[in-house]
Amino acid sequence: MPLADEPSTRSALGHVIRGVTLLAIIVSLSIAGYVAAGWSLLDAAYMVVITIFGVGYGEVRTLNHPGLKLFTMVVVIAGCSAGLWVIGSLVEFMADGKIREALGKRRMNQQIDELKGHAIVCGFGRVGQILCRDLAKAGMPLVVIDTDPQRLAMAESLGYPMIAGDAAEDRTLIAAHIDTARVVAVVLPDDAANVFVTLSARELNGSVEIIARGERPDTEPKLLRSGANRVVLPAAAGASRIARMIVAPSAESLLADAASLHAMNQQLHEIGMEIGEIAVPSDGELVGARLADLDMRGTLAVIVAIRRPDGEIRRTPHASTVLEPGDTLIVAGRYEDLPRTLKRVAAAPAVSWRGASKA
């Protein structure tokens, strides 16, 4: 939730700027006055400094003229007044920030304390941000838990109540009022961390619904055993979504058009997915191999189509399909999810993996 009355902040800063400006003008005019009286620039500047800041040193020169004494009195009064203005404005500005910060935290704590039937979102990364945005649109009360100061600042700027802390620790979940929560969404990018958070949440509230994120398929049973009601695999779901998009009637034009492919990759990048292309070199190890030989089991990458050298698109190719020189494999997934065979080919300088990260 936004802290501050921003106009109040701007007003305090404006006082500081005006005070500094006035002090600078008084100093300049005072120096000019002494120079006009026949003093050197250095003597004039020295006199102004020791006069305004009340150091107490004696005058640089004897003030034997009544006008010069009157002028010095004006310098003292005006300079000290401007200096006090600057100091007071600085104190006001700093105190205002501290007070607003304290009031903002107090309001946020009160808001969290009043939550019931809310969602606790553990992790404000890419997936967590999308989730919070959609929950907020649906009017679902929520609280964000994260350890990253930048992400917490982002959540606060968007108006989401947030708690800085490790979601795997009981005290953090208790502070988020897991006892009255309706659902806990565990969407950290690390599978092991998600398992620990799920365990902690289930121990603290045996009836709350827990929806956990998993990056790899083999994490799903672990999360379910840890107490998750449901497990979502964004990467796997994204691959399936891509496959459905590709087998649509307009898939040939979609895959053949570089601009359309780039646009799709930009959208899929939000959920950590991309469509990559791997060319089959004429003298490479893939020539003559069947798709079944690539062993895609246990990976999140899926070969959704093959583009032949003549431009023909073969959608959902069969496992017995033989690869030919000049073929291009269209893969849904990420480079790190590719099986070893495809990684060797994609790492070749003349081929490379062309996906969202390089689009």
What is the strand tally?
A: 10
CATH superfamily of the largest domain: Regulator of K+ conductance, C-terminal domain
General shape: elongated
* N→C terminal distance: 36 Å
Please characterize this protein's 3D structure:
The chain is α/β, with parallel strands linked by helices. The protein folds into three domains: 6-112, Orthogonal Bundle (Helix Hairpins), CATH 1.10.287; 119-232, Rossmann fold, CATH 3.40.50; 237-358, Regulator of K+ conductance, C-terminal domain (Alpha-Beta Plaits). The chain contains twelve helices and ten strands. The chain has helices at 6-36, 41-52, 66-113, 126-137, 149-157, 170-175, 191-204, 220-226, 234-246, 251-256, 258-268, 340-346, and strands spanning 119-122, 142-146, 162-164, 183-186, 209-213, 230-232, 274-279, 302-307, 313-315, 328-333. The strands form two sheets. The chain has a six-stranded parallel sheet with strand order 3-2-1-4-5-6, sandwiched between helices. Helix 1 packs antiparallel against helix 3 (66-113). It is elongated and about 110 Å long. The two termini are 36 Å apart. Residues 1-6 and 248-254 have low confidence and may be disordered.
